Amino acid sequence: MIGVAAVLKKSRVLYNLSLTAVFALLGFLVMGYHPGIEDDGVYLSAVKADVLPSLYPHDADFFRLQLQATLFDRWIAIFVAATHISVSWAELFFQLLSLFSILAATYAIAEKLFVDEHARWAGVAAVAAMFTLPVAGTALYLVDQHLHPRNVATALILFAVARILASKPLQAVPLLLLAVLMHPIMAALGISFCVVLALTAMEPVHAWLQSWRGSLAAAVPLGWIFERPSPTWRVALETRRYYFPFRWTWYEWLGAIGPLVLFWLLYRWARGLGNTVLARFALSVVIYGVFQQSVALMMLTPPSLVRLTPFQPMRFLHLIYVFLVLVAGCLAGKYLLKASVWRWAVYLGVMCGGMFAPQRALFASSPHLELPGQKPGNAWLQAFAWIRDNTPRDAYFAMDPYYLEAPGEDAHGFRALAERSQLADAVKDTAVVTQVPQLGPTWSKQVHAVDGWSHFQAADFERLKAQFGVSWALVAYPAPAGLDCPWHNDTLSVCRIP
């Protein structure tokens, strides 16, 4: 009998792992894969610099300084060195592993909250389909379309939550410590929720409030916060509207407050049904949300604490949205889907189709899955590929500081994909400056040096070369007279500056 039980248990584990892998693949196909976009312009550049230190001799500060608090890039670089596979394949592998881990963790959470198996898998399916659900006002998705330390930290935090729900809080500690090494800010928020969740199982609400003092103290860094911000830092900060909740629209505030109301209703409903675990979980989400929102407003209201703004304390909503999607999916599975095949088909079709369409519109000029070894999918990626393969590693490029917003560019980072140094841009590098204020003067000087880019002539490029040492330029085709341009397509030219 013991042997039969062991075989059945093993079969059950294999079944769960296989179904989780299927949903992870489904989520991957719906969300797409776009390495080098948005934040990955920073993280992927750092990984490539760790693997090949001769890259980026002119501008490494625009990614290295921001990543001093994480081991993410070094971890990927060590894996590449140990396995001898390319960075591109390593990033894809860990992206898929992150998706699988997030879904495995959500199933472990659902397993503690819901008895019905259909409910659990419906929750997992909902999270998979809605990986790219925007989190109100924060410029975050549940999961990014590229490998991001936030994806890894999210998986670790969710596994920690599952361990606490399983009444094994000590097992959550190493998971949360690993999350800190990947993404300290998201890990701090995860730790805050885990503390609240653990206390709900031991103490009444009035006792939990005593623990918040320590959380608040931990959220306030050291004295540099109170230093007078530089003008260039303030300019960079103003480009990020989502840093300022008081500038959010009414529907963004609805997206911030609405989930807390829903979890409060869930708490009362679950308590009425006698589902203690679900009720305590929902109440934990409410307490965590109210506390973190209060902390966020206290951090962002006084002018003296403006240096705290880049910590984006409203990111606490990310974890709440993951739980919201998971629980909503579980409830749909329990009360609507059950074992009906056609209902499941409609459920998956509506959710996957509803999330797939916006992603295709968002990256309309690029393949939905930008896989390693694939032919470049648009004019900008073609230029980046030629530059990567045909210019010296110490090449230093000048380009339109707003290139990331150009039609068809689809937010692909030059540094990460062309693997060459560039003058600071006015879109993504501004976010780096908000995190690393000492880069402000350099960023401002370089961005303003290319004011009027669309009207540049040979003399302007020669001025940039004399001022900054740039030796190449990525310009619109046809290129200005006087430049030596060994490559072009219908949109762009790659040129040497004489």
What order do the strands of the largest sheet run in, or round the barrel if closed? 4-3-5-7-6
User: Average pLDDT value?
Assistant: 85
| Shape summary | elongated
Distance between the termini: 82 Å
- Element pattern in H and E: HHHHHHEEHHHHHHHHHHEHEHHHEEE
> How many β strands by DSSP?
7
Report the structural category.
mainly alpha
The helical percent reads 55-70%
The number of helical elements comes to 20
Number of domains: 2
Strand content: 5-15%
- Rg (CA only): 24 Å
Low-pLDDT segments, ≥5 res:
205-227, 233-238, 302-308
Largest sheet: 5 strands, mixed
Describe the structure.
α5 runs antiparallel to α6 and α8 (172-182) packs antiparallel against α9 (184-200). The protein has helices at residues 2-31, 40-51, 61-64, 72-83, 87-113, 117-129, 149-165, 172-182, 184-200, 205-219, 231-238, 250-273, 276-300, 317-337, 341-362, 379-390, 414-418, 428-435, 440-449, 458-468, and strands spanning 134-135, 140-141, 396-399, 421-422, 472-476, 484-488, 492-496. A hairpin with a 3-residue loop joins β6 (484-488) and β7 (492-496). It folds into 2 domains: 86-338, no CATH class; 379-496, no CATH class. The relative contact order is 0.12. It is elongated and about 80 Å long. By secondary structure, the chain is mainly alpha-helical. The strands form 2 sheets. The chain has a 5-stranded mixed sheet, covered by helices on one side. A two-stranded antiparallel sheet has the order 1-2.
Features:
498 residues; mainly alpha; 2 domains; five-stranded mixed beta sheet; two-stranded antiparallel sheet; 7 strands; elongated
